[in-house]
Amino acid sequence: MAFRPRERILANLEAIYREAYERAKAAADQARMADLDAAYQREQLLLEVLLDLRDALGAPPAETEGRPGKDRPDKNPGPDPITALETIRRITRLR
């Protein structure tokens, strides 16, 4: 499965907010401009976290885990669901 590049996704987000920001600026709506700026930063951070998760879950297993063998006879293994859950657990663990 091919994913859209991170740069393209983030550029699309920026374009959407930039357009709305320019409309608010043209209307001299300072409150809306401030709201859009805060919303953009919040959504950019959330999107980057989601993209990091996508990249972590879509990555092939570590070399020792992904090697075909007795336990993994397939020659081209996909992402391992257990490894994906462990990755999510590590990322979301709060300390």
Structural class: mainly alpha
Q: Could you state the order of secondary-structure elements as H and E?
A: HHHH
User: Which stretches are low in confidence, meaning pLDDT under 50 for 5 or more residues running?
Assistant: none
Helical region count?
4
Specify the biggest β-sheet. none
Radius of gyration: 20 Å
| Structural domain tally | 1
Strand residues, percent: under 5%
Helix percentage: 55-70%
How many DSSP E strands? Answer: 0
Q: What spatial form do the alpha-carbon principal axes imply?
A: elongated
End-to-end Cα distance: 34 Å
Mean pLDDT: 80
Descriptive overview:
With about 100 residues, this protein is mostly helical. It has one domain (about 5-60, about 75-90). Helices cover about 70% and strands about 0% of the residues. It has helices at about 5-25, 30-60, 65, 80-90.
How would you summarize what this structure contains?
The chain is mainly alpha-helical and 95 residues long. It has helices at 6-26, 30-58, 63-66, 81-92.
What descriptors fit this protein?
69% helix, 95 residues
